[in-house]
Task: structure prediction
Amino acid sequence: MSLAQQLQTRSGNKCELCNSENHLSIYEVPPTSNANSDNSILICKTCLDQIEKTEQLDTSHWKILNETMWSEFAPVQVVAWRMLSRLRNEGWASDSLDILYLEDETLEWAKKTGDHELDGTVEFHQDSNGTRLYEGDTVVLVKTLDVKGSTLSAKLGTVVKNIRLVHDNTEQIEGKVEGQTIVILTKYLRKG
Result:
C-alpha cells in the first residue's frame, strides 16, 4: 500500500488537523529524511499554507486542534503542538497546550525545528504600497537607484520582470535591470 493510501485510510480521507476533505496532500513533518506513515500526515491546503507560513494564521481555523491534538499518531501530535505553540497568545490554545501530553521522544521531535519559539505572525514581501509580492511578479521602481559596486543606475519607472524573493529578508527582492541581477529594497518599488 502506498504512503498516500496508508494516510488516507488512517485519516478517513480527511485532513488530520482540521478534518477538511478538500485539497489534501502528504506533509512530511520536519525534520524527516525518508517519508513514511510514522513521520507524515495528510493535510489540506489551508493547513499547509499556514504551517509553511505562506499565509497568515487564521486563529479560528485552528480551534479544531482542541479535538485533533488527541490523535494517537505522533506526527499529528507534533504538528498540533507546534501550531498550538505558535498560537499560545490565544487563551484556548494556551489551555490546550497545557493539557497536551507528549511522550519525551515526540516532544523532542516537536521542538527540533524551533518553530514553537516563534509567534503566530508571518511577514511577507510587500511593495511600497503594502501590496504583497510573489515570486515571478513584475514590479516598477518608484525611485531612481544607483547600484552599489556598479556604474548602473536604475531609473524611476524601470520595469523589473520575474522577480525573486530574498527568503531571509522580507525587505529585499532580486531582479534583472539591464541584464544585471541586482537586489532591490521593496520600499523602492510597486507591483506592476
